[in-house]
Amino acid sequence: MNRKYLAGIAAASILTLSLTACGGSRGGGDAAAEGGSNEGAKIGVAMPTQQSERWIADGENVKSQLEELGYDVDLQFANDDIPTQISQIENMINGGVKALVVASIDGTTLTSVLDQAEAQDIPVIAYDRLINESDTVDYYTTFDNEEVGVQQATSLLTGLGILDAEGKETGEMGPFDVELFAGSPDDNNATFFWDGAMKTLKPYLDSGVLRVPSGQTEFEQAAILRWLPDTAQDRMEDLLTVGGGERLEGVLSPYDGLSIGIISALTSGGYSADELPVVTGQDAEVGSVKSIVEGEQYSTIFKDVRELGKQAVTMVDALMKGEEPEVNDTETYDNGVKVVPAYLLESQIVTVDNYEAALVETGYYTEDDLK
Ligand code: BGC
After folding, report:
1. Which residues line ligand 1 (CB under 6 A)?
2. Average pLDDT of the segment spanning 148-169
3. More confident residue, 276 or 30
4. pLDDT tens-digit series, residues 179-195
5. Which CATH architecture has domain 145-302?
6. 3-137+305-345 and 145-302 share one fold
7. What's the average model confidence in pLDDT over 338-365?
8. What residue stretch is flagged as signal peptide (predicted)?
9. Nearest to 341 by CA among 320, 307, 304, 311
10. φ and ψ at 271, to 5 degrees?
11. Are 78 and 49 contacting, i.e. CB atoms less than 8 angstroms apart?
12. Is residue 15 very low, low, confident or very high in pLDDT (cuts 50, 70, 90)?
């Protein structure tokens, strides 16, 4: 994957490690407290899995940007296995990290390992996914997750012709048969995506413009544990048999990996390439962008993980210098123990109409990546 890491990194790299040991926030770094340098301070970066391109890119981005600033990085991927992630974080703490950046698998399972971090005054930044039930999470950086769900549902409505390109109603009344998928129930983001999507679809479900043949409109019914494509494929296969034989016109999918499983089930269930329903997604993964260009998947949501990485690195660097990281949301992300101060980034709907401008012209992918 030849992502080009452009201006952001160049800009980040000219930040110096000069210290402003002003104290106040937790984990100002031993070196900061002593008025020395954080050069070479070790930062632990815990990512959930390498089964999805986006997390590999996230890990690489955060690592390379931290290294540009002179930090030493312990980057680990946990293969979507909770005990593995816990022991990786434990090893990072025992290995002397000065800060942790954690994208959790299950946001509720890290409480006791993070207590160990707290005991050693190691600040913790939740990366993309909120860590729940822990007062040890100092900061959070992510995208506006509810807005991601709104965008997914909006693109479904646009793809069906209910909304036009400006988001205005066309007067198209359907009815359209759609099925709905949600993400992993242990990922705090999944309910935000679902809530954003369902609030957008509700008026059309209520009026009958959209119908769900299976009747499965609850999060618990639609959720796919651990975001597994095969589980989504199995559920889609089942839905094709319970729906009463109607031809589906749309599928709300919250993640590109699920969309691939869903499209496979549809294809083997008798839908030819030109009669596939409008299928949404998230992450602009290469396989799905290619599928969009080929006219199979309809849309994805582009979340520029270069920017997310930059934000996490900026937070770490501020903490290491004893400064307060900048946040832009202090209300949305209550983890059950506290509202975690967050920095939210914006996402973008991508279809065949704008993928070049959004993904190629911004250097996220090259034309060759998408061939
Ligand atoms: C992320 C999404 C991703 C999903 C599956 C979520 O926590 O925010 O971008 O599609 O996990 O990996």
Report:
1. 52, 54, 128-129, 183, 187, 189, 227, 255, 282-283, 303
2. 97
3. 276
4. 999 999 999 999 999 99
5. 3-Layer(aba) Sandwich (3.40)
6. yes
7. 97
8. 1-23
9. 311
10. -85, 125
11. yes
12. very low
Which one of 227, 228, 304, 305 would you pick to mutate in the ligand 1 pocket, going by the greatest count of ligand atoms within 8 A of its CB? 227
Which of the four CATH numbers 3.40.50.2300, 3.40.190.10, 3.40.30.10, 3.40.50.80 does domain 3-137+305-345 have? 3.40.50.2300
Residue 359 main-chain phi, psi, to 5 deg: -110, -35
Ligand 1 probe mutation, 58, 131, 282, most atoms within 8 A of CB? 282
Residue extents of the structural domains in the chain: 3-137+305-345, 145-302
The rounded Å distance from CA 42 to ligand 1 centre is 26
Report the nearest atom of ligand 1 relative to the CA of 143.
8
Other C-beta atoms lying within 10 Å of the C-beta of residue 342: 20
Instruction: Name the band, by pLDDT with cuts 50, 70 and 90, for residue 243.
Output: low
48-69: pLDDT as tens digits: 999 999 999 999 999 999 999 9
State in Å: Cα 255 to ligand 1 middle: 7
**Using CA positions, which residue lies closest to atom 4 of ligand 1?**
255
Sorted by sequence, the CB contacts under 8 Å of residue 88 that are 6+ apart come out as 46, 76, 78
Whole-model pTM: value is 0.89
